[in-house]
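Table S2 (continued). Query chain:
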Amino acid sequence: MFSSRLPWNLEPNRIARALAEKRRLGARLLDLTESNPTRAGFDYPPEIPEAFADPRMLRYEPAPAGLRESREAVARYYAARGVAVEPERILLTASTSEAYAYVFKLLADPGDEVLVPRPSYPLFEYLAAMESVKVRSYPLVFYGNWQIDWDELLAAVTGRTRAVIVVNPNNPTGSFLKRAELERLTRLASERRIALVSDEVFSDYAFAPDTQRVETVAAVESGLAFALSGLSKIAGLPQVKLGWIVVSGAIEERRGASERLEWIADTYLSVGTPVQCAAARLLRAGESVRRQIRERTQNNLALAREMVKGTGAGFLPVEGGWYAILQVPRVRTEEERVLELLERADTLVQPGYFFDFPSEAYLVISLLVPGSIFREGLGRVLEFL
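Corresponding output:
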């Protein structure tokens, strides 16, 4: 009766079952996995709710690519970062996940393939499967810093490859795409006539300057590329549901892609009028939230590096984003460690295998957590090492 696109394994894993039991018992948990900024104790400026007091939201005037003024607001966001993006190259979506769905619909027929990085956020397989698209992975390798394994990436390209996806910076490794890597990717994409898709939701959260870093592919002038982002991370507003796609590349390719994306969007018209009317003010007010997130994540990262000194663990280098990776002694499985911390220390972390790390033993810890909770929770983790 049901589609076979997804495996439909609805049984919770051991960690989810243990977490549910802890919550049922009313335990005070120290959650070092928190990724929702609205639950992380930030001060949201009053301009954000005030932005929705706009009488224009009572009038429905559907625009498949998004209201012009909203796309102009997104263009100003890129201009402030030194990148000129015309509103005509911007298409609004309800989320970055929906943006992926639109891009997959645009590029791929059922059975076609997209290449995704490993390790990375465990969502691509589901998003691709719901579009009947297959996922093939290419590894990021760590030699003092994270970088693309070019031999493996090239080996993964087939006649059915339609896109190479990069997450910039990667979640959870926090590694940015570098200029030399972008040059190789755009050359490969042009030669093989495949698209480059860049997930840039964390690109505002770098920990230090780097002249070799790529902040966005919105300025790419060859082939075809898509930059994906949205208010969820930029303004710490996952609940308002506004994302976007910026189309870049050669003029003919990007024009053809934009026209077809608008056709797809016209079928759904998913982006609400209220959030479009509020977009300009939300982007401006979001700067305050962004500053708070930067300060929190940088302070927690500095604290984490200090706390692990003299222990048997260490944090891998991280360039940006909201997460840090703790490498721990490989004396038991990641799942056993996570369950032990949860059951004996009321502390929740994520195992590396959730993010498809090729080997153990890694724990992924959120830097978004309030400082006092972060200090106490990380202290408990280190006690068990």
